[in-house]
């Protein structure tokens, strides 16, 4: 059985309204990011740590 079989008509209407709102709010943003901003988001400028003989050190 589906979940929709157990819901009343008013509840089904509310669920359908939520689905429609989700579809309309998934628009792509037109924000253009620079290469520096993209590198920051990917985490390439973070410090790198390596385990050497059991101790954690900067690489």
Automatic annotation (TrEMBL):
<feature type="compositionally biased region" description="Basic and acidic residues">
    <location>
        <begin position="19"/>
        <end position="39"/>
    </location>
</feature>
<feature type="region of interest" description="Disordered">
    <location>
        <begin position="1"/>
        <end position="39"/>
    </location>
</feature>
<protein>
    <submittedName>
        <fullName>Uncharacterized protein</fullName>
    </submittedName>
</protein>
């Amino acid at each position: 059985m589906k979940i929709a079989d157990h819901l009343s008509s008013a509840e089904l209407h509310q669920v359908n309204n939520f689905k429609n709102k989700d579809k309309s709010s998934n628009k792509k943003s037109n924000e253009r990011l620079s290469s520096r901003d993209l590198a920051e988001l990917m985490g390439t400028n973070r410090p790198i740590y390596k385990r050497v003989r059991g101790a954690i050190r900067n690489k």
